[in-house]
């Protein structure tokens, strides 16, 4: 029984604390590689935020490179020799980090920054002055636009068409101090939007319809974009996908690598997919501190709310013992989280309840360390980014 195993492994710890079950982590990593079908997976660090676990994934077959979420993080990971292939997934306006990048030859060889406009190039030039070549990746907007004025997908790049991509690529190639090495196209409306949200059959139908139309359009347009860009630049990589869309993106012959991170931990938002089922690997434990009624147990702390829309699916969820749920009028709180259900009847003061976060790496912004559990013992305890005094926003 998993609850007994985790309780035994952590019996000497006082909640709240966080763990990663290495058996589940390794299972998830292997399943992601299986789904990638031979494409290398770039580890999305924002969904991990534990250096030891980024390295653990990179040591596995099928994984290569890191998709960082800030330039400062990429520079730090380069200093730590985590990888020599560090792609910053979002444009940067961090002048200090740009100056460090420009001054460090090793980092310039390892780090690629993201752009989707000439303004990004102008900002870099203004921040650091004359400089040696900096590696850049062009981001493509892969939202679905079925009708004029309709935008379905994340608001990311301003580059949507092959002509726009080729025009920007040509400007980058002509620009002194920059080398265009890659294209990235993240299909958030597929990779990050589960097609089987629990208890929402109508929403599920709508999502499946969107994805069934958006997917084929994207594969065709991305291939056209890559072809257009390759006419003016030699590309080292074309990155696409996410945990939720590895099969779709891997079927696109223009893509050379995939990206994934959340699937290593299996947070609750990824329960809403039909095609795969990750094992919950990242958990946190809370203590029962009150029994206000027979069927309600109040836990200490726990209000670790995920980013995104302020909806119930962004709250953490009770996991073990099975059969618990939070209260609709109170939810997970800053100092207390009441849970109810038949299983609550057996809980006593000092018992622990295992919780799951809605998203992956965000959990570890709450803890300085994470206990890595193997079987029924703690294999070791390692710092999170926060524990290494690294806060990248």
UniProtKB/TrEMBL annotation:
Pfam families: Ala_racemase_N. Residues 20-190 form the Alanine racemase N-terminal domain. InterPro entries: Ala_racemase_N, D-amino_acid_metab_enzyme, PLP-binding_barrel. It comes from the Bacteria. This is Alanine racemase. It comes from Lentzea pudingi. The lineage of its organism: Bacteria, Bacillati, Actinomycetota, Actinomycetes, Pseudonocardiales.
